[in-house]
Design brief:
With 401 residues, the protein is mainly alpha-helical. The protein is built from 19 helices and no strands.
Length: 401
């Protein structure tokens, strides 16, 4: 079975893209440029909606006497990553709550440190620019997945919707969400196109970026093992990809354990951050508190609650729509990790930013809309809402995004 045919195992027959001609074998550079040209409208639209969000944040920052650069480059988790890039990790567990930097995965601060060594400017500036560049790589990957599965129009709409999520401003902050989404999106694209070594390598890098990298590893491993069982022709590459996929996440967890001198070192660090697994109990209690008992719940927390609820609904729609199994596994495990952990409630909408396949049902519905005005209204409203909530999140809300 050829790599182009491998995707047929995961995509319903009526929705499969046409296979490329066997006589057409352009070089890697040519394929890359052709892919970029095809994605150009989606990336241009993504730039437009993110610039709208940035403009609103800049206006509010000016009105409140804040600088836009420190707001985006050095707030909350950004400081932790910059500290790791500057001083490295601690070598002890300790007992202080919310103080151990071993909770933060290493790829992003390592890239910041490496880039800062060869470019001018501060590490904070380098980290911010790295996140912005990664956001475009991520948007390209989101488009590639949507285009592969449902065509160019759906891919473009999927990219714009990802750029107009309620907390999408984080995509242009010194955070790891853009890097992680880029790795996850291209790993899933590699799965859909049967490039198992690429899929495993990208999943391994995702596992070095965020705790939810385990969701990418699970998707790649399951898809690769199913392909290996089904087609002896791809068995060696698929098994290799499956073996590579979890190495990043497992390697960091093992390294933290060795560094602090206990097997469960990483999970002990997470407990210091009050981030124990509780099967979703804390999430349900917080939702009940916000939606039933509080008479005046905080606006940003309500937005987070709405994102969590809608994400579960969208996952069910994705399952009903028979979305390809690797995408369902990725978003399912992502939801399981985010909703099932007992940590801080406020950042959970941000934690779900990489779950772009959840937006496929919305993108498909917009693509089928008969009136262009409907699409314009939906995208315009989501852009304005994202811009306003992003400004509120950064400059009014007192907690982490």
């Amino acid at each position: 079975m050829s790599p182009a045919a491998t995707v047929h195992a995961f995509v319903p027959a009526s929705r499969r893209p046409p296979a490329p001609g066997r006589g057409d074998a352009p070089g890697a550079g040519s394929r890359l440029l052709r892919s970029l040209r095809r994605a150009a409208p989606a990336l241009t639209a993504y730039l437009a909606v993110r610039l709208c969000g940035l403009l609103v944040v800049a206006r509010l920052a000016h009105a409140k006497g804040h600088g836009i650069w420190p707001t985006l480059a050095t707030s909350w988790d950004s400081d932790w990553y910059l500290g790791i890039a500057e001083h490295g990790y601690t070598d002890r567990l300790g007992t202080a709550v919310n103080e151990n930097n071993l909770a933060f995965f290493p790829l992003y601060p390592a890239l910041v440190k490496a880039a800062a060594a060869v470019t001018p400017g501060s590490r904070a500036s380098v980290g911010l620019m790295l996140a912005i560049v990664c956001s475009f790589v991520a948007a390209w990957g989101v488009f590639a997945v949507g285009d592969r599965l449902r065509g160019r129009r759906v891919g473009t709409l999927l990219t714009v919707l990802w750029g107009t999520l309620p907390v999408a401003m984080v995509q242009w902050m010194g955070y790891t969400e853009s890097l992680f989404t880029a790795l996850a999106a291209w790993a899933l694209y590699a799965v859909l196109t049967g490039r198992w070594l690429w899929a495993g390598s990208l999943a391994s890098l995702a596992g070095l970026t965020r705790p939810t990298g385990i969701a990418v590893a699970a998707a790649v491993c399951l898809a690769a093992l199913l392909a290996a069982r089904r087609d002896p022709g791809v068995r060696r590459a698929a098994v290799a990809g499956a073996c590579l996929a979890p190495l990043g996440w497992l390697g960091f967890v093992a390294w933290v354990g060795a560094r602090v001198g206990r097997v469960d070192g990483y999970f002990a660090v997470q407990r210091l951050w009050k981030n124990d697994w509780d099967g979703g109990r804390a999430t349900l209690l917080e939702l009940r508190q916000q939606l039933i008992y509080m008479t005046r719940p905080q606006l940003f927390v309500l937005a987070v609650s709405a994102v969590l609820i809608l994400s579960v609904v969208l996952f069910l729609l994705c399952a009903v729509d028979r979305q390809p199994l690797p995408l369902l596994v990725f978003t399912g495990v992502l939801l399981l990790v985010v909703l099932g952990s007992g940590g801080v409630y406020f950042p959970r909408a941000r934690f779900l930013l990489p779950g772009f396949p959840l937006l496929l049902p919305v993108a498909q519905a917009l693509a089928r809309a008969r009136r262009k005005a409907t699409v314009a209204v939906v995208l315009g409203a989501s852009t304005l809402m994202s811009a306003w909530l992003g400004a509120y999140m950064l400059l009014v809300w007192k907690g982490p995004p």
